[in-house]
Amino acid sequence: MDWLTRMNDAITYIEENLNGHIDYEELAKIACCSANNYFRTFSFITDVSLSEYIRRRRLTLAALELQNSDIKVIDLAFKYGYDSPVSFGRAFAALHGVTPTQARADGVTLKAYPRIAFQISLKGEKEMDYRIETKEAFQVFGVEQIVKMDSDAVDVSEDGVTVTILSKDEQAEEELHEKLHKAAGSLPNFVNQSMGTVHHIFGHRDVAPGTIAHMTFAFRTASSNTEGYTIVDVPSRTWAIFPSEKFSWDDEDDGNGVVRELAKRIYTEWMPTSSYEQVGELEMELHGEDDEFGYVEIWIAVKRKG
User: With 60 as the cut, is the pLDDT of residue 168 above it?
Assistant: First the structure.
């Protein structure tokens, strides 16, 4: 119930500030987690990003005001955080299918997105495998990128430097995987030896609010060739480890769907009811190798609650 209360209190904060500034750090404090963890948990639970939810709610309220008051469009635009009536008009039309002026007419059809309320959902019909393991500190190496929490295909600026983030160039991704595979060497003994050599780590260092550090990596061992790569020290941690169902390597969408569903169940079913909570934002996605099928293990750094 504590988790449920915190999530609903965070929604109350959002609703009370839809016509003003929403401070993501304050939002995270209310939810008792980091801003990035709140971004991720919210999207897993609702299947919509936090910024999209806020955008829909603001434009829902704006439509109601247009139909029930004489407020000017320019005033409404500034009230709900838009730089100009033009940008407000574009966003309004994209959501409602009509312009703000047309929205005042009798009989016009508009869209309403209601406030979200988190409730208890009785689940458990499907078991969830996990294990808790404590690992000593280790190192990984690879190519680091900064990911904006509400997008995976834009550049973000950090300390005045524009950082290129997750590439959608499949050929470039394949080349990176091949290079890391050749440079990786042997796997450390604390990793299942059926695992592949190239994986992903998130939240291994602090970055600007609303973004998260990501690295495509290989484990560093005595046989690794790390020249030209970024090396990251991963501290000793207790990990909650969740294996996915197996999926066909020939069906990338199936694999992505399995991983998304696993992550969603971790954050919506296991985390709220377990005796553990996440430590910071540290998380790994390890990919298993098989001639026919693939699988993923999601590793989340945790500690006991209380």
Answer: no
In the chain, what are the domain boundaries? Answer: 2-104, 131-304
- Across 20-29, 90-99, 159-168, least confident range: 159-168
* Per-residue pLDDT tens over the stretch 3-27: 778 889 999 999 999 998 898 888 8
SS3 of the chain: helix, strand, coil, percent, to 5: 35, 25, 40
- Give the pair of three-digit tokens for residue 36: 């990035």
For the cut 60, the answer to whether the pLDDT of residue 124 exceeds it is no
Q: Is 288 helix (H, G, I), strand (E, B) or coil?
A: strand
pLDDT on residue 71: 93
Contacts 24+ apart (CB under 8 A), 269-272: 269/123, 269/124, 269/128, 270/128, 270/130, 270/240, 270/242, 271/3, 271/41, 272/3, 272/4
Beta bridge partners of 234: 138
Question: For the whole model, what pTM was predicted?
Answer: 0.77
Q: Where are the beta strands (DSSP E) in 124-175?
A: 131-135, 138-148, 156-158, 161-163
* Longest CA–CA separation in the chain, Å: 73
Mean pLDDT over 257-280 rounds to 84
Architecture of the domain delimited by 131-304: Alpha-Beta Barrel (3.20)
Contact present, 238 and 132 (Cβ < 8 Å): yes
Tell me the angle at which helices 2-16 and 50-68 cross, rounded to the nearest 10 degrees.
Answer: 50
Enter the tokens of residue 54: 């806020």
- Give the CATH architecture of domain 2-104: Orthogonal Bundle (1.10)
